[in-house]
Amino acid sequence: MRAVILRLDTPGGEVTASDIIYHEVLAFKERTRVPVVGLMMATTASGGYYIAMACDHLLAHPSSLTGSIGVISIFPDVHELLGKVGVRVNVIKSRTSRTPAAPSGR
Description:
The protein is α/β, with parallel strands linked by helices and 106 residues long. The protein is built from three helices and four strands.
């Protein structure tokens, strides 16, 4: 076998599943010494793109929607609610450059 073609067509999905597949591709390559070619079809985004990073070579269909290893985080603004019930938030940081999510959403 000269190579394996891993056909990718996914908008991403759940992070743990993507991470498991990514590491399985790496393990396969190490175990067999067979290169893996990622073939990006209609959509290869987010977790799908992350999986593609485990491949030795990448090919994208000309019309493929490809990109973005990213995360969507939602931070609701609950500072007024916390104030009504008397809850205060104290943030302790190990470095001044760290910016944890604040209950104010700001």
